[in-house]
Automatic annotation (TrEMBL):
GO molecular function, one term: chromate transmembrane transporter activity
Protein name according to UniProt: Chromate transporter
Superkingdom of the source species: Bacteria
Family from the record: Belongs to the chromate ion transporter (CHR) (TC 2.A.51) family.
Origin species: Treponema bryantii
């Protein structure tokens, strides 16, 4: 797939992603993994990294995939292609918002899109669970033993998670501070 084809693919994904970046993950997987550009395991690693970096996951994924396949120019072009449909649609909606606001067809369409969006968000969640726990790749084959499952549900990271949630919601520590503490914890203890 050429850079132009990749940009068009992400323009298409951006155009039909109603409901946010989580919905885009399903479309990206169908377009990128099924085309053989990256493996399923690479794709799920990209999801994890894109979730943990600041910004919308759909844009983070587009940037990451563009960079992996075509370097910095690929990252810039693919990210712009992902965002461009949203910008165009927002400008059109802003222009005609008053006339659309009370239209029963618009209200009905939005009511219909809510459950569809929920389903599209649920698909990658189920796929990641099945990929990592039920049908793990060779890198996670340790999960087929009892020791592997103990490693997955290690009490130390679970306790750390509880501490981080407490710091985030009760102490009101800034999320960046929690991310930094989590990174330090992972480097030191895991």
């Amino acid at each position: 797939m050429s850079l132009l084809q990749l940009a068009f693919t992400f323009f298409y994904i951006g155009l039909f992603t109603i409901g946010g970046g989580q919905v885009a993950i399903t479309l990206m997987q169908q377009a990128i993994v099924s085309a053989g550009l990256i493996s399923q395991e690479q794709f799920y690693n990209m999801i994890a990294i894109s979730e943990s970096t600041p910004g919308p996951i759909g844009i983070n994924m587009a940037t990451y995939i563009g960079y992996e396949l075509y370097g910095v120019p690929g990252a810039l072009i693919v990210t712009c292609a992902q965002v461009l449909p949203s910008i165009i649609i927002i400008l059109i909606i802003a222009r005609f918002l008053k006339s659309f606001n009370d239209n029963p067809f618009v209200k009905g369409s939005l009511a219909f899109l809510r459950p569809v969006t929920t389903g599209l968000i649920l698909v990658p969640v189920i796929q990641v669970i099945m990929f990592t726990l039920i049908n793990p790749p060779e890198s996670l084959s340790v999960l087929t033993t009892l020791e592997g499952w103990k490693g997955l549900f290690n009490p130390i990271p679970i306790a750390a998670y509880g501490v981080f949630v407490f710091l985030l919601f009760k102490v009101k520590l800034h999320p960046i501070g929690v991310i930094i503490l989590g990174a330090v914890f992972g480097i030191v203890f895991l």
